[in-house]
Amino acid sequence: MAMALLSAANFSYAADEVDASQMDHHSHDGQHMHMSHGTDDKGMDPKSQRYIKTKALAEQKLADLANKSCSDCHGKNGISKTDDNPNIAGQEAIYFCKVMIDYKHDMRKLPPIKDEDGLYVPTMNDVAKKLTHQEIVDLAEYYAHLRAD
């Protein structure tokens, strides 16, 4: 399940989306893919310019995904402008994942909602179904690290 993928430094969704010309990918025993980091598995040097640039690009991709998927209803940086939609900034990542996966698989449903023009707006079920499990995990960590105040 996606919740088991949580980690403090996860930015795999966005890192995977960064231009492949800027990093090499390889797999270990066919189980996972990650940025190339030389000849050993100790990881990239966090002080290297390549790591810093890749992390910055990954963080920007996550911010773009959050803006595209969540900000219309939950506000910029996860702070809602209305009482109808909850704040998601500072939300526990594990709770965020559970709720989103429940929406994605229709285990939690919201009734259809119409805007002031009488047009149906996407519900959380619609939004969650468009996200991969990895995107949900990455968004959970992104919002968990934003301040709610």
Please describe what this structure looks like:
The chain is mainly α. It has one domain: Cytochrome c-like domain (Cytochrome Bc1 Complex, Chain D, domain 2, Orthogonal Bundle). Helices cover 41% and strands 8% of the residues. The protein has six helices and four strands. A two-stranded antiparallel ribbon has the order 1-2. A two-stranded antiparallel sheet has the order 3-4. The longest helix is centred in the middle third of the chain and has 21 residues. The chain is elongated, with a radius of gyration of 17 Å. The two termini are 31 Å apart.
* Average pLDDT figure: 75
Q: Remind me, CATH topology?
A: Cytochrome Bc1 Complex, Chain D, domain 2
Euclidean distance between termini CA atoms: 31 Å
Task: Name the helicity range.
Answer: 40-55%
- Please list the strands of the largest sheet in the order they lie side by side: 1-2
Poorly predicted regions are 1-42
Give the CA-based shape: elongated
**Series of secondary-structure elements, N-terminal to C-terminal:** HEEHHHEEHH
Strand content bin: 5-15%
| Number of domain modules | 1
